[in-house]
Amino acid sequence: MNPGARGAYSFDEILTKFRAEGRIAIVGASVAGLRAAEALREKGFNGSLTIVGDEPHEPYDRPPLSKQVLKGWVRADHTKLPRLRPVNADWKLGVAAVGLDRINHIVRLANGENVEYDRLLIATGTRARPWPNPAEGSLEGVFTVRTVEDAAGLAAALKARPKRVLIVGSGFVGSEIASVCRDLDLPVTVAERGRGPLMGALGGVISEIAAGMMRDAGVDLRTGVAVQNLSGDDTGHVRQAHLSDGTVIDVDVVVASLGSIRNVEWLEGAGLAAGQWGVGCDAGCRAFDINGVVTDHIFVAGDVARAPHVLYDYEFMCQEHWDNAVFGAQVAANNMINLEVGRVPHLPLPSFWSGQFGVNIKSVGVCSYGDQIVFTQGSPSQRRFAAAYGRRGRIVGAVTFNHGKWLPYYASLIEKSAPFPPPPPGYDRPANAEVMPARFPDPREPAGNPDVVLTGHDPTSRGAEFRPRA
């Protein structure tokens, strides 16, 4: 059925019929996909539900893969997400979506099968960015960490006690893996082409503290250098890494922690606002087409969604965090089976946590949106503190190191657009509470996104299209 076609039915009758007989397809057997399916059933959708996933596994929990699994505390295949309620879905696992026909409401699968839908949820998430040289990336001992198989392979390699592990990149995943290596008493080198670890997420002031944590734990941290190439032995196992400063490191295991790629290639030609930035959508999770016009039947949730945020000047943001995936999925589910007056916005306050080198790091808001920082509590030298980020006189984010009990306080300030610097708490004030530049990397570097151009001369009939890459 087509729930958008009114015909002789009232809107309430259309909605009732859709909830009973409609077809919803979810592409992405992820935490967002699973929680959306559960929410649909919870909210009374009794129609056909199909869930497509390119991995052969049912949805599983990814955060433990770079922590507990690598330490050997949890087996990689024991991270399956709990089911909060039955979803009664047709699961199509181990088969990727390869195309979308918006006119006929069809998702095309790699096995030649077509999945028809009345409503579609895109929850395809991200994948790990691979090593840029495929031949070097295929050497034994070279890993990324994103899937169950990735984590199981790396865990086995670490258990074999390599002589040295090289981690390329020092974001949160790379830093967590470096911490695990030191917990396992393994020699580890971290190569970071930027100025320090966690720089992109938390800025240079906090990066210096994170770098001190690494070095004090025995990590060989090298900043401002790139890994130019990897070389292996006659058996095809990685043995050396050649750095841009001319040094060569003997290694047995290499972990490429180079960030993520949003899974949008299957949407090419579908006419959606989809690219390496994600899939553009409104605050109600409805996808935009290439012209920026909201669609009626396609919704987006999770890491792949890019939506405007009211607290950050309506800037479009992707939020690759657990809470965003779960709550965004629930909002998308609600809005898929409701008419306009019953729809709700997804207005998350981003938050994340990381455990590394004996420190629990928690953050709320969008720290990288700020350009100033101030320590508000605790002692940075003891790595036990809270710090707030500001922009144009208001607080936009906060981070805590071993001080997470205060995070709700800062979250409440951010939600109210409270002034920056924020009002000081009642106790545990730091010795230095001076506002200083947060020192984030320069965002003006070319991104390599495909160009969008306007076609036509009449403003009433003008349209957008992607310019083909050279």
From TrEMBL:
SUPFAM superfamilies in the cross-refs: FAD/NAD(P)-binding domain, FAD/NAD-linked reductases, dimerisation (C-terminal) domain
UniProt keyword annotations, A-Z: FAD, Flavoprotein, Oxidoreductase
MF terms in GO: oxidoreductase activity, acting on NAD(P)H
Listed InterPro entries: FAD-oxidoreductase/Apoptosis (IPR050446), FAD/NAD-bd_sf (IPR036188), FAD/NAD-binding_dom (IPR023753), FAD/NAD-linked_Rdtase_dimer_sf (IPR016156), Reductase_C (IPR028202)
Flavoprotein as UniProt keyword: yes
Cofactor: FAD
Region feature Disordered, mapped onto this chain: 421-470
Pfam families, sorted: Pyr_redox_2, Reductase_C
Domain FAD/NAD(P)-binding: start-end pairs: 23-309
Tagged with keyword Flavoprotein: yes
Name of this chain's protein: Pyridine nucleotide-disulfide oxidoreductase
Species, as recorded: Mycolicibacterium sarraceniae
Lineage of source species: Bacteria, Bacillati, Actinomycetota, Actinomycetes, Mycobacteriales
Encoding gene per record: hcaD
